[in-house]
Predict the 3D structure of the following.
Amino acid sequence: VFDSIPGMEKEAYKLSVTPQLIKITASAPNGFYYGLQTLYQLLPVDVYCKERARNAEWSVPCVEIEDAPTFRYRGAMLDVCRHFASIDYIKKFIDVLAAHKMNTFHWHLTDDQGWRIEIKKYPKLCQIGARRDSTQLNGWKGNSFDGKVHEGYYTQKEIKEIIEYAQSLHIQIIPEIEMPGHSSAVIAAYPEFGTTKKQIKVPCSFGVQYEVLDVSSQKVIQFLHDVLDEVIALFPSPIIHIGGDEVKYDQWNASVAISNYIKKLGVANPAELQIEFTNAISEWLKGRNKHMMGWN
């Protein structure tokens, strides 16, 4: 039985099991859904395994449960840049989040080792940036590589499918588009956006790379706005993650264009330049009714 009670927190629920009736009370569909997950957990069988569920004895203990989440943001991140994941895998990942009453899927879609989201205005991001020649073995300190091409990206149609699937399980997807560091895959596809303007390949090794976007270039800022416009059009999430961590300043320190830009802005050093850049992106996102999230 679904019985809506005005004033109850939208993710809260009450579950009552008596010999005569199982009743879930909630004020919103997601609260009812979490009550249903608790009901599944009370069953003496793994209901997520169809074979076991088909052959099981079904019973539920009599209980009275009132539950509400301690944290409004409950989620997990999946990095598909270092290791591309299939659509089926992502749906299973979302299933697991939902079963544990999580409500947020942080989808890490771009990094040095791969660009995974179709951007129609910049096709080379997927044609070049979504493919690397090999993959480092044994972590970022490893000395060997597997010698196998690693590639893949999600079309905008596939991303819409995943978003709809997540929404059906009351999960919001927050996309992550890295800037201004962790951008080697971008620079491999469009070297003119890099600080050195040199042609590079998508890195096969893990760990932090030295490539960084030339934020003094209006073309780079326009590129980021264009990319974010397409991302915003796809994702209903009020939050857009822009990465922002582990920026190596070596290339900025060696760049005349960046030095001149630092003087023009009146900031003291590359670290303050990154703050200016991040704040500008944040304000731009606010103008599109989005909030910025980033790594500290």
